[in-house]
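Thread: sanity check for a docking pose with pyridoxal-5'-phosphate

Original post by kr_44:
Hi all, I'm comparing my docking run against an independent structure prediction. Below are the sequence and the ligand SMILES. Could someone generate the full complex and paste the structure tokens? I mainly care about where the ligand ends up relative to the chain.
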Amino acid sequence: MSIASNIQEVRAYIPSNVKLVCVSKFHPNESVLQAYEAGERIFGESKVQELSHKQEELPKDISWHFIGHLQTNKVKYIVPFVSLIHGVDSFRLLSEINKQALKAGRRVNCLLQMHIAEEETKFGFDEGELTAMLRSEEMKGLTGVNICGLMGMATFTDDREQVRNEFRRLKGVFDRIQAEFFAGKTDFSELSMGMSDDYRIAIEEGSTMVRIGTTIFGHREY
Ligand SMILES: *Cc1c(COP(=O)(O)O)cnc(C)c1O
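Reply from moderator J.T.:
Ran it for you. Here is the predicted complex with pyridoxal-5'-phosphate included:
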């Protein structure tokens, strides 16, 4: 199967109000270009160095999303060009993004990552931590970041009902946070959930942004 036909298949399940992030991590520039030629403009990467190289080498009208675990000491390398950072999982990271964004004269779009999975290995805030952070005084000073919504990853399991319940819970938190902290503001509008194995469930549960790698580009070689 070609990348173009994989995209066509995936696109058939994605409503027009849901954004597709093509996750190109560990795939070469030629693969990104094939997806680009098929019309895709949003690409997701999880390593700072790989993202920086691709951004330099590939067409300038690509929106690059950072979807991995971001270390504070590497924030400065991507802030000048990144369109959206999906996995903000601490105040410390948010505050570093803010600092580098102000330096670069930008406002950087961010999603706060919620921990919804059973696995301890996945990053993110729980609901209490998220609410406490958003209520805190120190949040008010962060003019270099634009909080656009939430992101989460379901448990890696064959139990579809469990996955659905985790996404449903995340959507519930999203609605509550939106009502409490972002009422009347249009910026807080994105719910990034759903990957190759679970994006259809995620869309049914209210995702506005799916992050799909393997189904489009094939298996990654690490
Ligand atoms: C790698 C990755 C994806 C894509 O996963 P696939 O199963 O290949 O679609 C999505 N989101 C995050 C955070 C990832 O790290």
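The first strand starts at residue 19 and ends at 23. Hope that helps with the comparison, let us know if your pose agrees.
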